Amino acid sequence: MVSKHNPSGNKKRSPLSIFAVIGLCCFFYILGAWQRSGFGKGDSIALEVTKQADCSILTNLNFETHHNDVEIVEPSKPKAQVFKPCDVKYTDYTPCQEQDRAMKFPRDNMIYRERHCPPEEEKLHCLIPAPKGYMTPFEWPKSCDYVHYANVPHKSLTVEKAVQNWVQFKGNVFKFPGGGTMFPQGADAYIDELASVIPIADGSVRTALDTGCGVASWGAYMLKRNVLAMSFAPRDNHEAQVQFALERGVPAVIGVLGSINLPYPSRAFDMAQCSRCLIPWTANDGMYLMEVDRVLRPGGYWVLSGPPINWKTYYQVWKRTKEDLKAEQKKIEELAEQLCWEKKYEKGDIAIFRKKVNDKSCRRNSANMCKPRGSDDVWYKKMETCITPFPKVSSASEVAGGELKKFPARLFAVPPHISKGLVEGVSVESYQEDNKLWKKHVNAYKRINRLIGTARYRNVMDMNAGLGGFAAALESPKSWVMNVVPTIGKDTLGVIYERGLIGIYHDWCEGFSTYPRTYDLIHANGVFSLYQDKCSFEDILLEMDRILRPEGAVIFRDDVDVLNKVRKIAGGMRWDTKMNDHEDGPLVPEKILVAVKQYWVGGIKGNSTSSAE
């Protein structure tokens, strides 16, 4: 019987097959020996190929990724340009708010104080020097009260505002007692009075706008109460006021209520204030007050202290008639009613208005409503004398645009912009995944640079903020983040404000509205991929260098090919750089480039790394 494991049975192999196998083995052995002897055709072909390839033996073969070490070589292009320091007269250069250029524009509606950027042929292609003696700013919270004189060597405000207690010069530092024009005895007492009406303490108010901020003492003291204030003031005869604010570690930008919209989204701020900001609120049929209304959240508060409030006491000091001031206050209150604001408080120098949560009980003139448009399409858009409509609601108690949780819960709660589907391509699920991703990224950054998350990096900028995930993961009283949403990208700034963070619209083909040396850490995620067909990498990097403090750091996250180009330019900018793999490993084409700006100052001769020759 045939076994099922051996169907052919126990059949033995024939001697013939065994001899055949042995014969074949011998034949191939002899053939191989013949070819190795040098007489075979195969050897001559192989020898010719070897000669053409000119191969050499690699004694130390390394299979590790070389993105960290290899620079792209482009023989057709010159080596990396070395950028020279600018003349010391450019120490405080602000490209889009320069005085000489500003004076060429009309003074009507403060047009001359708005952004006026240089044409291509007038752009500087050099490194802005720090002033001689520049020092690393004091760490927060000491920086709130003290600034090194060498960093902002301008004393005019200590004389002009001496009575109002803005700033004092003592030895080699400026001291900020916390005073202001309308609170010469200190901002704390002033804020305490506001807090008797406005729920500042419980997290209901998180984002604030300070129009005409001076040295931003109000914003500084609001920070101590966990409120982020976006302060702005023009670059004018009040020398370096915004520069002082940023040197203190307080959010601020150069800006003005003029003829174009503010660079913020609608319904951004929980409160806004004008403390003797001298903005003509009744001019142009109330256009400036309507702009504040646009950026004020339903249920938000507006504080006015200064003219014309308490005109009966101050009319002589202000050198105006009682009738004029009385009429101005009446006009403001009429405008407030049109905007659907209620006056909640008036005592002494302070009046407080609250915007209603929706328009169900408003008496508005429909003819004066703004025409439908992308309400956040505001970059260089002309300001209009019209009222921004409330988002639609279904009941008298519903908050127009969506109700927000109190901070800090609102930081990671789903923002109304996302829950209502107002951001194209972003769902609740993708928003939550984005938060997880940025927590992972920030943890990776902290492994690379252990100073991230400490008071060493107080003023932080995210150049392409997306949904605000980077700032949310970094959130701490030790630092704040200016979340920039590029005007050529997806509009997500409304989401950022709904999270209780602050930010601004900007086009990185132009200079940012700040002074030199105002940020400790800059984060650039995908910025150069976004702008690679829009403007030159060189211009963006030189602007980053302008606003970065000496010994400040930059984190780039982008495609490796893009980062190699960035690294090549940065090599001529007195930056030390290092490429790092993505946290998921070397096979991921996205890399992390870290840079540190070297310390050097203007006006010193004979030192190649510390001079501005």
Automatic annotation (TrEMBL):
Coiled-coil annotated spans: 315-342
Localization terms from the record: Endomembrane system; Golgi apparatus membrane; Membrane
EC identifiers of the protein: 2.1.1.-
Pfam family, one: Methyltransf_29
GO molecular function, one term: methyltransferase activity
Membrane topology: Single-pass type II membrane protein; Single-pass membrane protein
Keyword tags: Coiled coil, Glycoprotein, Golgi apparatus, Membrane, Methyltransferase, Signal-anchor, Transferase, Transmembrane, Transmembrane helix
InterPro entries for this protein: Put_SAM_MeTrfase, SAM-dependent_MTases_sf
SUPFAM superfamilies per record: S-adenosyl-L-methionine-dependent methyltransferases
Enzyme type, top EC level: transferase
Transmembrane annotation, as ranges: 16-34
GO CC term, one of those recorded: endosome
Keyword Methyltransferase (UniProt): yes
Entry's Gene Ontology BP terms: methylation
Similarity comment text for this entry: Belongs to the methyltransferase superfamily.
Name of protein: Methyltransferase
Source species of the chain: Gossypium darwinii (Darwin's cotton)
Lineage: Eukaryota, Viridiplantae, Streptophyta, Embryophyta, Tracheophyta
